[in-house]
Amino acid sequence: QVQLVESGGGLVQAGGSLRLSCAASGRTFVTYAMAWFRQAPGKEREFVARINWSRGATYYADSVKGRFTISRDNTKNTVFLQMNSLKPEDTAVYYCAAGGATVMFASSNVYNYWGQGTQVTVSS
């Protein structure tokens, strides 16, 4: 099993920044990549960003490109999501996920492990 614990959410004004962290523990060697998803009230969970553990290749949703940066610290089994220029539409619960190698990386179905989520609220 792999356990994921997110932290760093909170309330911020539009234009501000937040940094989310996701600490992985357990059988982390079975995972190939980590990702961030988010879910706003009344909406489906959507892909935000993904990073591969080994080479660090990254992928982003169009809605966050240029504003969000995903990174990792392999020594600490931790993934980060730096969020800049936040907008009210970024308000959501942000989830960390771990999964294998796949071209369908934007689909939540391909991730086996999930964190409990952390709330991000951006006020206008």
Structural class by secondary-structure content: mainly beta
Beta-strand content bin: over 45%
Strands, total number: 11
Q: What's the helical proportion of residues?
A: under 10%
**Which segments are poorly predicted (pLDDT under 50) over 5 or more consecutive residues?**
none
**Rg estimate, integer Å:** 13 Å
- What's the N-to-C terminus distance? 40 Å
**Number of helical runs?**
0
Largest pleated sheet: 7 strands, mixed
- Overall residue-averaged pLDDT value: 94
Net shape: globular
The run of helices and strands is: EEEEEEEEEEE
Describe this structure in words.
By secondary structure, this protein is mainly beta. The protein has no helices and 11 strands. Strands 2, 4, 5, 6, 9, 10 and 11 form a 7-stranded mixed sheet that branches. β4 and β5 form a beta hairpin.
